[in-house]
Amino acid sequence: xxxxxxxxxxxxALLPIFSAFALRNSGDADxxxxxxxxxxxxxxxxxxxxxxxxxxxxxxxxxAVKKEIKPGPFYKYAEQFxxxxxxxxxxxxxxxMNKIELSTKAVADVNxxxxxxxxxxxxxxxxxxxESGILTGVNVKRDNSPKNVTSDNVKVIENIESKVxxxxxxxEQLLAISSAKMAEETAxxxxxxxxxxxxxxxxxxxxxPADGKSMEISLKMMDELEKKYVSLFTGQVSETFQTFIIDYxxxxxxxxxxxxxxxxxxxxxxxxxxxxxxxYISVRTVIDNKLPSKAAIVQKDRRxxxxxxxVAENGFFCNKPVLANISISYGLDNLVTKECLxxxxxxxxxxxxxxxxSNNAIYFYPETGALMSVENKExxx
Length: 381
Hints:
This protein is α+β, with helices and mostly antiparallel strands and 381 residues long.
């Protein structure tokens, strides 16, 4: 949290120095550069440069356990031969929650696409973009960040399955005519294994293991063999760990929105599937990060398109994100919390075009679209 607050303070600290940069570099400034929202154009020609500002997608990672119970072939005789009650009589699937994690990802905001156009013979700055078109800098080296890949609202990305036990069959079982007879022979084998274990522990055997390690190995083998034969009566249980990814777009402050649902019989299901219990997401701002100046662009026309203010109509648009707290809860229990910068909950601001000349290198955070730094090349040299 402290690191994020420092980033916000650093961004705010850069705002008052814009005028100083503008005055010092006004002789070489590109006064004929205009930055206009793409939505204001009917046709955008290739002669114009277009960049996107990012928005934050919250990725909810849910790891769930799928337990599959398969009845044993001798389940009808479990109580008769082994005295075991309440065994599985039909295939059953039970899901349980393992863990939830939160992360964020920047994607291009199609509602914040801007066109940069030039006129005259003045200097045209080089705009650096990610492969998805997100602004990373002006007069700086191109950022070869990987292209953002979209995903479904609920998606399984990983399966880890446990192994199912294989049970060896003896000659007496194979020769048995009926399932009842096979069950009886299997019960005798289980009884024999138990008697052999007691004899081994008590030392009532012809050959005692040479040392404690050998004894431990022998007992372990007996335990595993007994479990395999007993599973023919009680059934087998296999577990699969599955990872689900849910994308959530925090376009506004949220108080217990349903992020997804979880069903004991189906696992993770979409928010609109009422078969599952709801897991809620809340988004709250941590710092009131409003600008006191007129740099904020908040006006929109009837179609929802951004209308730049007169004082900033020729500026270079970037984001001023806010620090937000994101939490996932179930019932009254808060399960996981994460703090992150969210640009779409902040403000759209305009930088003076006098900054964008051959002497200045301007860096932006591709994750948030916020101003990172302004470096004067002449001063640096």
